[in-house]
Structures are given as structure tokens and as C-alpha cells.
Design brief:
about 140 residues; single chain; 6 helices; alpha+beta; globular; two-stranded parallel sheet
Length: about 140
């Protein structure tokens, strides 16, 4: 599952997929799920974990005017693209992790018992809507 949140932790884009799909492959698809009504500033940082470290994803987000802030994987062979000044913003990663914690308070989402994915996605979107309502 991939999720895009705004700076207060309100989910604005959610995507679920199979467990064998890499996070770097989901990165751009999650950001495409953000509604057009949500305005993004130029060079807004996309804070992600090590699983999103991909040069292809960095280039694709740069075309959209976004900057990927993700620490490099330990087995990276190409030179680094990150500098220490920008990576200071990585400490805000807790906002996304906190949102995942809020979602785990919904019992149906903690362990997936549903056979059909559309039922699970329905409960996921309902939980995200309840989180958005409770934040404002």
C-alpha cells in the first residue's frame, strides 16, 4: 500500500497493490491519485523511505516539478543524488508513519480478511475519509 499525505497527516492519495510490487514502482502511481484540487508548490519535497530510492522515479518526479527525498539504499552503485541540507527534511517522515498508525486503529484494515480487493479498498477509503474529517 502506498499513501500520499499532506503536511498535517491527512491522506490525499492511496493505492493498494499486490505484495510483490516494489515501492519504487508505486511511487508515481500514488502521486497520480492526488486530486487536481490539491495544489502542489514548485519543488515540493516528496519524503519517502529507502524503498522508493530509484533514479527513474527521481527523474519522473523532477519532470512533474517535485523533488524526491529518500535515503539511498545501502547497495547503491551509482553516485549519490542527495545532499545533507535537503535530507534534513527527512525527519518529517514521522507524519506518514503516524498516519499509518491512525489507519491501524481501524480493525478491518489492520489484517486483511476480505477476499475481494474492492471491499478492502472501500474500507480503506472510508477510513481515510474519517481521518480527514477528524483532522479538520
Amino acid at each position: 500500500m502506498g499513501m500520499a499525505v499532506e503536511r498535517h497527516g491527512v491522506p490525499v492519495g492511496v493505492l493498494t497493490d499486490a505484495a510483490n510490487v516494489g515501492e519504487a514502482d508505486l511511487g508515481s502511481q500514488v502521486l497520480e491519485r492526488i486530486p487536481e484540487e490539491v495544489e502542489l508548490a514548485d519543488e515540493v519535497p516528496v519524503v519517502a523511505d529507502r524503498g522508493f530510492d530509484s533514479d527513474d522515479l527521481r527523474d519522473e518526479l523532477a519532470e512533474w516539478g517535485l523533488r524526491l527525498l529518500a535515503p539511498h539504499r545501502k547497495n547503491r552503485k551509482r553516485p549519490s543524488h542527495s545532499d545533507g541540507r535537503r535530507m534534513r527534511r527527512y525527519k518529517r517522515r514521522y507524519i506518514v508513519e503516524r498516519t499509518f498508525g491512525w489507519l491501524h486503529s481501524f480493525r478491518r484494515l489492520l489484517v486483511r480478511h476480505e477476499y475481494y480487493t474492492f471491499i478492502y479498498n472501500g474500507f480503506l477509503h472510508l477510513a481515510c475519509a474519517l481521518l480527514a474529517i477528524s483532522r479538520f
